[in-house]
């Protein structure tokens, strides 16, 4: 009536259509159709805002949403909260689509990677565009943590996609897998560091934080296992490409043991074995740490399959290390360098 000087009844149908769309967007389906529904509703909001919501005049129309972590209601008279909440929910839907993808297939893993990346993209848009939303789940710190969490899950799926067809037992393939695994570990470490900061720590389920720590240690241990296998199982032979192996190994380390070059390690059997075994020791201790983290959380106790994966990975590194361990040797306390 204020905008058109018309009786509201003139636009009853249009208002009813808009309210139907808004009502439907409260319970979208957990698939692409649900995202499209939210996007359709979102596209109406700037048009409505420009026409009916003057910055100098309050309309008396309230919008209420609930914080997804605390359940605390947030109520405002402007459309900013409405727009931000719809974007947040689109990101949440993409994360659910990613989680429900079939990760036993290349196609399913591709869908999962794409969905987690889209979720990160929607959250980045939220962080950059809506800077003063009153709901804690949309605060810059919380959204920053959620962006990292989505990227970590996408990176984990990239690792799985590379590993799914099988890993070639060759020097360069094992080096590549070591670097892919350590990339997953690094991003989960960033997620974990975000989750243990106050006030995020008080508002995120504790098992999220523990799961991110489990994955940090698990994937770092896998990386050391792959690198140890590359060094111990693949001696540099006359038919191997020496330059290619040297380049691959030089990209794995930020810092080598003093007086060592990548070529020295590749050509010297004793040095290769010494560093390879040190990587296996780090793999074993990493898997033990992941299992210890797992044991700290009662919620994870329900995920028996996760425990089986962690135990199998630990056994694999132990068995492999025992193949190279010589009881008569003096214990070597050399610590393997970090993998980059």
UniProtKB/TrEMBL annotation:
Residues 1-327 form the BRO1 domain. This is Rhophilin-2. It comes from Xenotaenia resolanae.
